[in-house]
Amino acid sequence: MAADYKYTVDYLKQKYKSKHPWIYWLFVIMLIIVIVMLPVVKVEVSSQSRGIVRAVEEDVQIKPVVQGRVEKVTMSINKAVKAGDTLLVVSSGQLSAQLEMQTRLLSELSARHGDLRKLCAGVRIKDSLSTFLYKSDLADFEQRLAELALRDSILHSELRRNKQGADAGVVTVYDYDQSLAEYKSVKAETEILRQQKLFEWNNARQEAEQEMTNMVGSIARLEKEMADYVIISPIDGTITEYSGLSENSFVYPGETVAVISPDDVMMVECTVLPADIAYVHVGQPVRLQFDALDYNQWGLGKAEVSDIDNNITIEQNASYFTVRCKLLSDSLSLKNGYAAPIRKGMTLTGRFTLTERSLWQLLFDKIDDWFNPKLMKS
User: Fold this and answer.
1) pLDDT, mean of residues 166-195
2) Could you say which DSSP state residue 66 is in?
3) Which residues form the AprE-like beta-barrel domain (predicted)?
């Protein structure tokens, strides 16, 4: 009977019975807990995209609009410049001579105009005038007035005598009338001379004013043209490219002589795939993994989405949306406190947190990818 018992079911159960049944039950309980937690535990779903650090404003190309010989160069690679700093001076040649001549003529014309204003206002003091032309003109005018005044005095005396003679009957009425006519003629000639001279000076003053207006406009135009021969920096920034011009070399209109990268607030420009763009929104946090800084040592930079292009960009069979992000810090630090600044041109991988999904949803999505025949990867 004992030999037969070895071949019974009870014997086999007793022989192979697990000595640690709690392991089985622990596994079952853990499996149940995992299944229960699948809809509860949520994880972040993120998308990665390549990006680069750049200034908010575009780089500025320096291009002269004139041609000529270079007189002065103050540019060099990696040199910091301020808005208004002189970068290049081109010889203006004949333009400078024209401006100098026009300025001198304007000064002379202004002096003549000043004299004419005094003469028209009744100032008859020769020493108060500044130009030889109107000093001479005033002297000639005063001489003619003096001659007329002398004739006036002589004729007035003669008229007085003739009147007395006519009253006494020794001078005929005709002689008296003749002397009276001559006296009135001198008076009229004097007044005509004054009016003609005043009219002449007024006309000259108006012509001088018109000439001055035209000349001021001409000088302004020349100065504007001259300004094109002095090339200045339009922005604060750093010269990143320089053509290598030197003194006495020649430049031509439209030639790029330098490129200035603006000292502006930096931003990150990322390219996001069309499949992920629906989850990206302004204000969304972004983590930045810089290629030049090992994230295991330096950590991740922080940024937030500030702008999203409305139009898709297609380049070399690749399509993407440009997303611009505002940097929330300008450096990364090691544990010992050493900080590395974030510089323009640094490449990186941007991690966009798209959404939160439960483990159950992720598992269902994976199964759906396997079994849904309608889903096709492009």
Assistant:
1) 80
2) S
3) 266-349
Look up the pTM and report it.
Answer: 0.54
Q: How far, in Å, are 98, 146, 177, 200, 294 from residue 186 at the CA level? A: 50, 12, 14, 21, 108
Paired residues of 51 in beta bridges? 270, 348
In this structure, are residues 160 and 151 in contact, taking their beta carbons and an 8 Å threshold?
no
Q: Which residue has the tokens 């959404």?
A: 355
Q: Which helix (H) or strand (E) holds 152?
A: helix 132-168
Rounded distance between C-alpha atoms, residue 135 and residue 129, angstroms? 6
Protein fold of 60-91+229-261: OB fold (Dihydrolipoamide Acetyltransferase, E2P) (2.40.50)
Is pLDDT of 226 > 90? no
Nearest Cα neighbor of 47 from 314, 271, 298, 268 is 271
3-class secondary structure, 10: helix
CA angle 58, 62, 67 (to 5 degrees): 155
Are the beta carbons of 348 and 52 closer than 8 angstroms?
A: yes
Q: Which has more confidence, 120 or 323?
A: 323
| Cα–Cα distance for residue pair 58/349, rounded to 1 Å | 22
pLDDT at 337: 86
> Could you report the per-residue pLDDT of 306-321, keeping only the tens digit for each?
999 999 999 888 899 9
CATH number of 42-56+265-371: 2.40.30.170
3-state secondary structure of 44: strand
The residue length of the chain stands at 378
CB 61 within 8 A of CB 256: yes
